[in-house]
Amino acid sequence: MTIRVVLADDEDLVRTGLRIIIDAEPGLAVVGEAADGAAVLPVVRRERPDVVLMDVRMPALDGIEATRRLVALADPPKVLVVTTFENDDHVYDALRAGADGFLLKRARPEELVRAVKLVASGESLLFPAAIRALAARRPAGRVAGVDRLTGREGDVLRLMARGLSNGEIAAELVVSTETVKTHVGNVLTKLGARDRTQAVIAAYESGFVAPG
Questions:
Q1: 45 with 102, same domain?
Q2: What is the Cα–Cα distance from 156 to 109, expressed in whole angstroms?
Q3: pTM to 2 decimals?
Q4: Rounded distance, CA 67 to CA 104, Å?
Q5: Which of 15, 169, 185, 212 has minimal Cβ neighbours within 10 Å of its Cβ?
Q6: How far apart are CA 33 and CA 11, in angstroms?
Q7: Residue ranges of the Response regulatory domain (predicted)?
């Protein structure tokens, strides 16, 4: 099954490079492009992609607000923020807005391909170490639902924060992958999180997982 990708970046050269890499990979295909955040929504509604590669800094409408509008759709695509600097607070704001992960523009082609596939699968977290560094600059506060987690759900959330996939968590806890999927679902429900990234951000912001 082909993973359908939309590119959102105000630089023509960047979009061209991304398209060449993605279209060269079997199972991936670029189905649309947008030169600004404001143009992303109509392209997504028309093409219904699985993943949007979103530049975080665009002139008319930035990637943060564009991401917020995308995740409000009834059936939103996964959003992978593409940025120059991994310690940019704009990245953290985009993740809080609903992005599923981020990728550095200097990433190698194979890293880009892997990132798109990883975000499409929804079973792992991109760049947890960098997210920890970004979270460390934000004050911890109370997040609803954290105190409702069971001990095992807390274990799963901590491993999610390390970027482990469901299979890796299952191996770590010596349980089945299906059991892990159930725990992950419970964690997302109790935290009111859209996905793993949102759950991990909640864990850091509440102090449940230490960002250091």
A1: yes
A2: 31
A3: 0.82
A4: 17
A5: 212
A6: 11
A7: 4-120
